[in-house]
């Protein structure tokens, strides 16, 4: 989906996604609907987000739920105050780690791994709702963060899970803290192996554990991935030798 078709700019979408997660029971599409009604603009951006107040949210959500007092709809006043600060840009969560350059052939024998993340450099996201995917290239000797991919546009796609699978289609493995059965089936159909790690954890610790699994006796599914990678490398080397 092209950005021009979205009712919200990318920068604003990140704030709105974080704000939605700060309020219990509020989804990203629901909050966007409320903001569009409040702002009255064709597109939500960071400038008009700064006009939103706590009273606006209380009134809007109380109206939607048929309650007279916004504090009684299960969200809580403090949560709405935090949401407004996020919408204004006063808090954006943990800083993101730097992405390192990567070119094909840099890390022979490496595997590409995606981690579902909602904040910082951590595995802490659900496949179908995480804000972004951290993408690592992992070999037996090196771990490198090669990309950070925002997943916000998935909420505007007809097939949300399909959009997310396509977003990480170049990855061999996916780590999540949670994933539903139908979503897992789509991930597997996309030739990506899903791993559910309910406790989550710092991304580099998770990747170090994955690296140890590569260096030891890898399970059959990982051995298959490594074998495919080896076959591709051999073909590439053979093609390069012919050209020379």
UniProtKB/TrEMBL annotation:
Residues 8-98 form the Dinitrogenase iron-molybdenum cofactor N-terminal domain. Signal peptide: none annotated. The keyword Metal-binding does not apply. Residues 120-211 form the Dinitrogenase iron-molybdenum cofactor biosynthesis domain. InterPro entries: Di-Nase_FeMo-co_biosynth, DiNase_FeMo-co_biosyn_sf, NafY_N, NafY_N_sf, NifX-like. Keywords: Nitrogen fixation. It comes from the Bacteria. Belongs to the NifX/NifY family. This is Dinitrogenase iron-molybdenum cofactor biosynthesis protein. It comes from Parazoarcus communis.
């Amino acid at each position: 989906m092209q950005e021009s078709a979205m009712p919200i700019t990318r920068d604003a979408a990140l704030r709105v996604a974080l704000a939605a997660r700060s309020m219990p029971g509020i989804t990203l599409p629901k909050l966007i609907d409320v903001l569009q009604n409040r702002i009255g603009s064709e597109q939500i951006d960071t400038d008009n987000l700064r006009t939103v107040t706590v009273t606006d949210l209380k009134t809007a959500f109380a109206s939607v739920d048929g309650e007279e007092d916004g504090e009684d709809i299960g969200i809580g006043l403090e949560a709405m105050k935090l949401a407004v600060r996020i919408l204004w840009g006063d808090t954006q969560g943990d800083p993101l780690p730097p992405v390192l350059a990567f070119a094909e052939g840099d890390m022979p024998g490496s595997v590409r791994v995606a981690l579902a993340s909602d904040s910082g450099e951590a595995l802490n996201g659900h496949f179908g709702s995480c804000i972004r995917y951290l993408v690592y290239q992992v070999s037996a000797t090196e771990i490198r963060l090669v990309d950070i991919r925002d997943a916000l546009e998935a909420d505007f796609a007809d097939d949300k899970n399909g959009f997310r699978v396509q977003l990480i289609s170049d990855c061999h493995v996916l780590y999540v803290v949670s994933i539903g059965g139908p979503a897992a089936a789509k991930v597997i159909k996309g030739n990506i192996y899903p791993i559910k790690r309910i406790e989550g954890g710092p991304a580099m610790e998770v990747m170090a554990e994955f690296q140890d699994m590569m260096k030891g006796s890898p399970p059959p599914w990982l051995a298959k991935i490594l074998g495919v990678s080896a076959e591709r490398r051999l073909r590439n080397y053979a093609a390069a030798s012919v050209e020379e």
